[in-house]
Amino acid sequence: MECAKRTNEVEHYGPGVAHLAISAIGSDRPGIVAAVSGVLVRLGCNLEDTSMSLLRGHFAMMLVVSGPDDLAAELLEQDLSAATADLGLLVAVRAIDDEVPAGPPGELWTVSVYGADQPGIVHRVTTLLAEEGANIADLTTRVIGDPARPVYAMILDVTVPPGVDGGELVARLSTLAGELGVECSAHRSEADIL
Amino acid sequence: MTVRPVLRLPEPVLKEVAQPVGPVDDDARRLAEDLVDTMRASPACVGLAAPQIGVARRAFAMDVTGHRKARSCHGLLVLFDPEVLLAHGPVVAREGCMSVPELTGDVARASLLVVRGTAPDCTDRVLQVDAFEARAVLHEIDHLDGLLFLDRVVSADGVFPRKVYR
User: pLDDT of A21-74, one tens digit each?
Assistant: First the structure.
């Protein structure tokens, strides 16, 4: 059903389809997605890959949409901001390349890092990953627990490139976690294809 | 040997409730052969349900031999009209499906099952399966009810793009 719908919409656009990246964040309340998607539908845009989450009481949206290639990013940003003024959304829109680059090859690992909150956990862990050429596909962090003793939790999905031993990378991460005084675990996250 | 195309979303047959096979006849035996041939043609595939090859009948083939997460292993298995008699101990794990090749998802499934079905040689089979073999059985039976792993993902952040290796 989805493909059929998409095909129809693309035909409606004609040959000129462009992609836009939208970010929006605002205090959480019911109706945010409905308001934003209402503007997009009205302007002939199609939501493609999106990620939307509640972050400490703020609803954060990241969307890649396709739309008519004569739809200017500035116009869409103004339209979205105006239509969501009562929601107090902070909206940004920019045009992006239509080409979808293939992700780097490698083995998927999921890494969990958690422990007493302190500055620099994300920076040091991701710096180590970057040094190894590992590519972050997804990263979520949350501050949890008693506010008097906050616990920082970070979960990453990482592509470990060919030639890098995943086990050794995990060992390096564990050493770093020891220095930071936090816990670290990692496992291959290949899905079982059934 | 007949390797049939593996259908992908949005093929409507993937969302149908499949019809019972009933008494095993030549059509059913041919379906069993096609399921096994098609499953064998994809090295990563450990199970295939009839709707995935366009047949809305309650049949699946599976073989978890050699899989690192398998404990029980009944080898190559084809079951018609399977039913779960007992299920216990849900475990969450990430799974994918040849009919939804772009995504994977975290799904909670029972880790111990007793399942009954009819084999292509007309024998009634009652099997106790666990761990990965139990997950595979439940995944395939879901196909017979028009359900995909997407219908069972544990949360919105439990769906992931699938890395396709060549």
Answer: 999 999 999 999 999 999 999 999 999 999 999 999 999 999 999 999 999 999
Strand partners, A157: A110, A138
Give the number of other Cβ atoms within 10 Å of residue B129's Cβ: 25
Residues 6+ apart with CB under 8 A from A131: none
Radius of gyration from C-alpha coordinates of chain B: 15
Q: What is the pLDDT of residues A63-118, one digit of tens each?
A: 999 999 999 999 999 999 999 999 999 999 999 987 777 778 888 898 989 898 88
Contact assignment for B96 to A192 by CB distance below 8 Å: yes
Which of B16, B33, B83, B140 is labelled catalytic?
Answer: B140
Task: Locate the chain B residue with the closest alpha carbon to A51.
Answer: B157
Q: In this model, does residue B16 exceed pLDDT 60?
A: yes
Give the confidence band of A9 by pLDDT, cuts at 50, 70, 90: very low
Which residues on chain B are in Cβ contact (under 8 Å) with A159? 163
In the DSSP assignment, the letter for residue A135 is E
Element (H, E) at A49: strand A46-55
CB B89 within 8 A of CB B110: yes
Are the Cβ atoms of A138 and B160 closer than 8 angstroms? yes
- The residue assigned the tokens 């030549």 is B26
**CA separation, residue B134 to residues A3, B78, B113, B117, B148 (Å):** 32, 14, 6, 14, 16
b/e code A133-148 from CB counts within 10 Å (16+ = b): ebbebeeeeeeeeeee
Which letter does DSSP use for residue A88 in this model? T
Helix (H) or strand (E) holding A161: none
Query: Is the CB of A193 less than 8 angstroms away from the CB of B98?
Result: yes
Question: Shortest CB distance from A193 goes to which of B9, B96, B157?
Answer: B96
φ, ψ for residue A103, nearest 5 deg? -65, 160
- Nearest by CB: B162 against A4, A140, A191: A191
Q: B52, B12 in Cβ contact below 8 A?
A: no
Return the number of other C-beta atoms located less than 10 Å from residue A1's C-beta. 9
At residue B104, the pLDDT reads 87
